Amino acid sequence: MKNDELAKAWTTLTAQLTDAAAQVDALTEGRDASERAEGYRFLTRILVAMTEFQVEQDTNAPSLVQVMSPIRKFFVDNPDTLYHRATLNPALRYRIHGRRGEELYLAFCLYGLRGRSNCILSNICDAEMEFDDDGRFELILSTERPNGAQNWVQLDNIARTLVTRQYFIDLRQQPAELKIEPLDDIAPPTAPTVEGVTHRLRALSQSLVRTMKSTQLASEAWMKEPNTVGIDSTVEGLDSLFPTPDNEYVGGWYKLEEDETLVMEGRAPECRYWSVQLCSRWLESRDFVNRQIILNYSQVKPEADGSFRILVTHRDFGEPNQLDTAGHREGGVVFRWLLPSGEWSQPTFRVEKR
Description:
By secondary structure, the chain is α+β, with helices and mostly antiparallel strands. 22% of the residues lie in helices and 32% in strands. The protein has a 5-stranded antiparallel sheet with strand order 1-2-8-4-5, with no helix packed on it.
């Protein structure tokens, strides 16, 4: 039994976790101890998340699982966004139905692997959908458009992941009601089999490796030029972080001494939503429950000419538009412009002694 495929899959998984811990140690050598501690915590978080996605979800009986939370984060999660995820089988047909809430944006994005790289296959947002007077809707996912379908997204033959996004300016707002179900007549899930669990453990191993690799490559690229605008939506490898095509992303890496502040100035484009937030080396949003690590457009106090001036700072200076580093000397800072229109320019970054 020790050499059967199930046992081998488990051995591979545990070995990859050990390798990932060694990567954390190597990446954080000579850096702040908190970064290493966060790295180990990050491994536990993605293990839990990917276990739910790859082991527990069933394409024949899908559910929309909440992806992010204050204690489960990756890929520069936006604290103002409610994400749900479902695992799909492109050979099947699915129906998503529900009712809009108080969200200011609702979208459904399909992703798949092309080779070993993640890619965006299709996306539909509320502006492209039809709703009844009560905000109810139906969205069909299938290879061919059914007769009479008002809202439809084509399932590419490599489609494996559906991510829904709801944006808010206040998380006390009521979210949309969303449900997913297969349209094909499928028997209920069977009891676990050796073959089935082996396949899922292998998928879990692959997800852990991809998540760790994508996180490492992105953060290392951002860290090369601190305190400058060094990333945007054209950056290579961005698709591996499961972005939405409705966003334009721009940002960089801050690196500040105790008496330094990063000053970010610019003018937001006309858009549905925008925000700026801080994240860790592991591309996790910082502690948004206890710290001001994100500001959206409703929270930013503009300058007299309509532009913004936002500070990334270790200390509270009693000024508007401050993002709290919580003592972290380094980290990522990312702007999101949602459905921007017209011409717009990147913000500027500069360091000031305070």
